[in-house]
Structures are given as C-alpha cells and as structure tokens.
Amino acid sequence: MQILRIPTQPIPGQKPGTSGLRKKTRVFMQPLYLENFVQSIWNGIGGVAGKVLVVGGDGRFYNEHAVQVILRMAAASGAARVIVGQGGLLSTPAASHLIRKRGADGGVVLSASHNPGGADEDFGIKYNTNNGGPAPEGVTQKIFEASTVLDHLLTLDTSDLPLDQPGTHRLGDMVVEVVDPVADYADLMETLFDFNAIRDYLEAGFTLRFDAMHAVTGPYAVEILERRLGARPGSVRNAVPLPDFGGGHPDPNPVWAKPLVDAMFAPDAPDFAAASDGDGDRNMVLGRGVYVTPSDSLAVLAANAHLAPGYRGGLKGVARSMPTSRAVDRVAEAKGFAAFATPTGWKFFGTLLDAGMATLCGEESAGTGSDHVREKDGLWAVLMWLNILAIRRMPVAAVMADHWAQFGRNYYSRHDYEGIDSAAAEALMTDLRNALPTLAKREAGALTVRAAQDFAYTDPVDGSRTTGQGIEIEFEGGARGVLRLSGTGTEGATLRIYLERFEASDLTQDPQEALAPVITAIEALAGIRARTGRNAPDVIT
Ligand code: G16
C-alpha cells in the first residue's frame, strides 16, 4: 500500500466555530477540502504517529465517505489504531465515552448536529481530545493555524474498507477496529441509573415516546428504552438513521419536533416524551401537556440527581453557559454547591469536569450532561428524567410545579433571527458593544438597565481567557437579555436573543407574556427589527 504525498495549498475559512468546522456539505465536497482539514487536525495536534483514535459520526450524507478518507489519512500519517463505529456511526456522547474507555489519544466526530443533512445541507467535523471532550480553544486555534500553512497531505492509495460488521482490519501498519456503536454506551447508562425502578414504572403502565428524528440515537434508544428497559415496542419513533434525516431538521425543539409536541398536548398523550438531535447530544423533554425548557430541565436534574445511583453522593457543582437561565443557580445556592457560568460551547465545561469542580452541566441550546463523558448527552438526560419520575411517581407537570414552588420560576425564552445579513448582524453587535459604557441607567420600554457587559471568561482551572462571548444586559428588578451571534450556522448570520425574568410567586404565566417587557426593552436598545429587516424571530424556543 503506497503512501501518497499530495501537494495542496491552504483553503481559507477552515476555522472551527462553537463546535468544530461546520459548512455546507458541498463546501466539504470540493476537491481536497475535507482532506486539507483532516491533515490540519493531524498537524495541529502534533501528528498522529503511534496514536489511537476514535472515529464516527451521525450517519448524515458524506459520513461514510469522510470516515474512509480519515482512515486512509490516519494510516498514512502513522496512527497505530483507529476504533470506528460499525457503519461509521457513533453518537457524539458514545464517541466521547469510547475515547475515555479505550484510553484513546483523541477522536474525530463527524456531524453538523441538529442542522439538516444532505448534499445541499450541512456537514461538520470536530476533533475531541483524550478526555473525550471537544478540543479546547488553544487546540482548535492550532488546527486553524495549521490549515493556513498547509502545503501537502498524506493519504494511502487503497480502496474503502468494509465497515458494516464488527471486526478488525489492517490498513498499512494501522489496525482498524470496527465496534458495535451502542453496547458500551448502553452499559455505561446501566451503571448510572436505576434501570429496575424505571422498568417497574413502565410495567406499572407508565408510557413514553422517544423521537429519534431519523438520526443517530435511534439504535441507542431502541436498545436502551425498548430492549433493556421494556418500553412498549414502537415507543421509539423514527428510529432508523437516514442520510438526510427524512428531509427534516433533526433539531429537538418545539419548531422542528412539532409532531411530538402536538402529540403531548393531545388527549391520548403518553406520560413522557423526548427527542434527540442528529448526533445524539441534545434533548427535548415533555410531559403530558407540558414542555420543559432546557434551562428548567437542567435545574430539575440538579435538584433531583441524588435519586439516581450514579449521583447518590451529591453534586460537586453545576455549570451552565452564560446565556442559559439562572434557574440552576438557585438550586445550587439552596443546596450549597458551586455554580459556574461559562461561554457558549460544551468545550468550556471540560476543565471543570476534569478538575472535579462540576458534576452536571447544561445549556439553553438543549444540552445537558454530566461528568460520565465530556459531551452533552441526549439519552443520558432522558434516562435521568425517567429515573427521577420512576422514584417520585409524579407527572412531569407536577414535578415542574413543585420545582417552581420551591425555587421560584425563571421565565425564559430564546428568539433566533436566522440567515440574516452577516454585515448587518456584525454592525448590530458592534454598535451595542460600543454603547456599553452608556447603557447603565438607560430606560428601555418599561425597564431600566442596571448593568451591561460583553461577557468574558477566565477559566478557573487553566486560567485561559475568552472574550467577546455575548452582550449581557441586566435590568433593575432582575430581568436579563443576552445577544450573541451563533457560532454554528452555515449561512449568513444567526442572531440569538436570550430573555429571562425571575418570578417568585406568579408561576403559571405564558412565558412570552411574562417576558414581554424584556423583549420590548431589548428591541428598544438594539433595534433588531430595523437592522435585520425582520418583524419576528424565525425560531422561538
Ligand atoms: C453546539 C455547542 C453547544 C452550543 C450550541 C449552540 O452544540 O456544542 O455548546 O450551545 O452549539 O451554539 P451557537 O449558539 O453558537 O449556535 P451542537 O449540539 O450544535 O453541537
């Protein structure tokens, strides 16, 4: 097998964003685009000679091809072994677990998460380090720098390997181990949660529905929920991963998972429902007649985690991204554990988890997880909820009402303006940033600004500093609005407006109505409608 040395040149724009490099699939399909980035990963991490890597993805269009390219390039650069999920599949949390369990040096995860898949949709690639988590900024910066000076890449002159059955192959001197993508992950879940209690509750008539959205969690959910826990066959819907996710967005929110939400508000709704995204790291949780916001879900999990065997010893701390609601902070304060606010991006939780400073982490963007892996984990969140419900034997709506009665309610919503003109979006943020020194005490609608800042973060473990992470505007009385540009979009800019208001006793308002004064105030300060030419957000979560 001959090693090919292919001359190339830097391709502009190969800069990882919030979670790896995400682009239109056709961008990745350009000659040498994927190969250049893979070689930049190898060069940015100091080479792969002698290393063990985990490789897998969410099964979207181009996944299989990319896995073969990565295998050839890893072998050509001297990697010792690559562990790859059968069929090239691995959910993001399962990849994280496999890296940790097998003591691998790192992994390459192929996904554009909740973005749609297909030749005309989105693709993505990200590197995870040996703790199983997304590479921190220092590493992604080195990968980007490597991409700007690349002049050649190495690959093998060989055909594709069969990946459809577990087994071992050789590619040059490198061993390729094809593994069942589900088994290790499912075993890990059994160590964390009270499967007997959940099984008993299901046997007693508790009903659930899980929508895998034609994405990677289908096989995981069938194995865990139906086979190991005994949920009725068919409880897992859309369980077969498809390259185009059935033509939809595999995004578990009330917009893209509307059929599931509608089913939960119908008279014959099951007791519990959930959905996960393209690569299995996000989750949405619903009860009969109730949608649980990701921020509230994090708070409820933090308040009840001790009911699950894996967390019986209590939590060391909790961490949330800055735009995520402060509901979990109230739990931490009441229960006496530490609470951290980080920039958006799961990579910022890694140091806290590694240092044992946080046990649970979560984000408003439908991600929750714990120190069992170094990624957010959709099915983990579903199982944690099921464990809590099986012990408390209360409907989801009652759990929420009880939580708010105890801790108060942080009304919360995110408004997204998608695909807006990048220059207009940048100008909006720049002008707001420049106005920061003058915002305090300014009246906006019925509210008055108390303080405003451009969020910056110093990692308490490694001291690294990250700036420009979103504009946070606090109002007198405790309401808050945050504006930032998404780092995961692939077309134009996505402006995210995060809105929050705390209520101690008026607990059953409609969130959009409860937040109306904050919405008006942010519009008055930022002029979103005039600058974006939009009258309303595209997505409200
Ligand atoms: C990624 C990151 C998350 C982040 C989310 C949204 O999630 O891992 O930490 O919250 O993107 O980021 P942004 O607001 O910049 O679009 P995923 O599920 O897309 O990998």
What is the helix fraction of residues, given as a range?
25-40%
Present as ligands are:
1,6-di-O-phosphono-alpha-D-glucopyranose
Mean pLDDT: 96
- Between the first and last Cα atoms, what is the distance in angstroms? 52 Å
Radius of gyration in whole Å, from Cα? 23 Å
Can you tell me the CATH architecture of the largest domain? 3-Layer(aba) Sandwich
CATH superfamily of the largest domain: Alpha-D-Glucose-1,6-Bisphosphate, subunit A, domain 3
Beta fraction of the residues?
25-35%
Total DSSP helices: 18
Biggest sheet record: 7 strands, mixed
Q: Would you tell me which CATH topology of the largest domain applies? A: Alpha-D-Glucose-1,6-Bisphosphate, Chain A, domain 3
Low-pLDDT sequence parts: none
Strand order of the largest sheet: 2-6-5-3-4-9-8
What's the number of domains? 3
